[in-house]
TrEMBL record:
Pfam families: LptF_LptG. The keyword Cell membrane applies. It is a multi-pass membrane protein. Keywords: Cell membrane, Membrane, Transmembrane, Transmembrane helix. It comes from the Bacteria. One of its GO terms (cellular component) is ATP-binding cassette (ABC) transporter complex. The lineage of its organism: Bacteria, Pseudomonadati, Pseudomonadota, Alphaproteobacteria, Sphingomonadales. InterPro entries: LptG, LptG/LptF_permease. The keyword Disulfide bond does not apply. PANTHER family: LIPOPOLYSACCHARIDE EXPORT SYSTEM PERMEASE PROTEIN LPTG (PTHR33529:SF2), SLR0882 PROTEIN-RELATED (PTHR33529). This is LPS export ABC transporter permease LptG.
Amino acid sequence: MQTQFFPSRTMSIYMGRMFLVRSFAVLAALVLVLQALDLLGESDKILAYPGNGNPELWTYVTLRTPQIIARFLPFSVLLGTLITLITLNQNSEVVSMKASGLSAHQVLAPLILASLLVAGVSFAFNERIVARASDTLDRWEKADFGPLPKDKALQTNVWVRDGNNLVHAAEVRGRGANTRLDKVTIYDREADSLLQIIEAPSANFSGQGWTLADATRFNVATGVTEPMGTITVGESIRPDQFTLAQVDPDGLSFMGLKDAIADLNDAGRPTRALEANLWHKIAGPLSSVLMPLLGAVAAFGLARSGQLFLRAVIGMALGFAYFVADNFGLAMGNLGAYPPWLAAWGPFLLFFLIGETVLIRTEE
């Protein structure tokens, strides 16, 4: 048996190239089909805004495609692994490698190394492109596919609860003491009854509350609207309740989400769900490394034994089971039922052990 971990350089390059070509070919086919189906479902909403046409449809495609790539890249790596290993098995190349003294882990080593490269590219792609595209698409959807606000830091349609009262700001700008609210509406309630509605074009944080300029009050009981001038309300409402009300982990990079979690911690607000998403930004791309291990069952066993198809189905089933467990763990983390670390890394570690167990018991 060979003592080096990898096969020869020629064999490693051959297997790695075969694996990458098939994985990205599957990904391209999936993206093409899924993007077409998604565009069919969303085109009526995009074209419903006056003046939208083909340019807006192409803009949607450029923003949605990175999300589809990020979501289905691990699945494409799984299929690419199965296709590569089945091809090698049918051509008796796996038998030749094992006859030369290579172990099952050494046969898989080039694929694992290539999947590490895919994981690194996936993480960088998510950080630089997917997060920005998700944030832009989310803001565009909130604007009903109309013109996007020029201020990228602008938050829209933010609701905050103040006791029984509800406060709505159409737009929120700035942070901390510099927070500014535009198109503010305050619903003054007592128990389940609405008493009055206070509206103002803008509000600024004064340190002791929110100063509303040119405010008006609508009395629900009398149906009369009266001007109130400049007033101060919401002494108990902090600026972070507006600026951190809508932290979307998909629209933030790893460092951006980490900073948002730090701000929430400073404000004394819960962050467990966001911490699970933070660590999943690493665990998600790294799941590509698991796929050669979970699909390895298709590589071994004689192709003429008639069990190659069954082995491929088992490998695919293991991969699908991982995706189900990963989504379940992240959902439990978002609900606070699992600790953040367990929600993000638990499925990865579990299926790593499952893959190693299957490989060792069957081939090693």
